[in-house]
């Protein structure tokens, strides 16, 4: 697991020092390393944090097919954005002794799984990561106000694209199909996400 600068851990520790629930968002283009950073932060805050990915709100493949959006899976309109906003609101208003269950996304089956992540009321830090946390339209526009901080996660674009090709191949596409998907889908989404980076509180850049 990569090591990050201690100042990022201290930032989170300071954020939750008053004992109140805080929600930190990690945003960035596909392949930027959001999930990796979320895991590093989680392991650095033992028993004090939980990771809730936006990807749990992917629409199911059967619904994407019905809507004619399967070839654009990962675009902003292939998620239940209203459901994600509702979860964030619940997490902010969580009552004592309540357990909130969040969905996750399983790449091996390319489907969301409901009720997979328990969030207890005594967990002070929720880390949520995803592509569209800073969009200013649709239901997405409500996300930013529900987050205490947003970190924009970035990495060299060539490294990021290579990661994406490898990821798609690992989960079933051949090399040509993987490269085509990255170029025609992932990079289109990446351009939109990049346009939102100025709204982030922290710019986090992975070393190549």
Automatic annotation (TrEMBL):
It comes from the Bacteria. Residues 23-204 form the Phosphoribulokinase/uridine kinase domain. Coiled coil: none annotated. InterPro entries: P-loop_NTPase, PRK/URK. SUPFAM superfamilies: P-loop containing nucleoside triphosphate hydrolases. Keywords: Kinase, Transferase. Signal peptide: none annotated. GO terms for molecular function: ATP binding; kinase activity. This is Nucleoside/nucleotide kinase family protein. It comes from Pararobbsia silviterrae. The lineage of its organism: Bacteria, Pseudomonadati, Pseudomonadota, Betaproteobacteria, Burkholderiales.
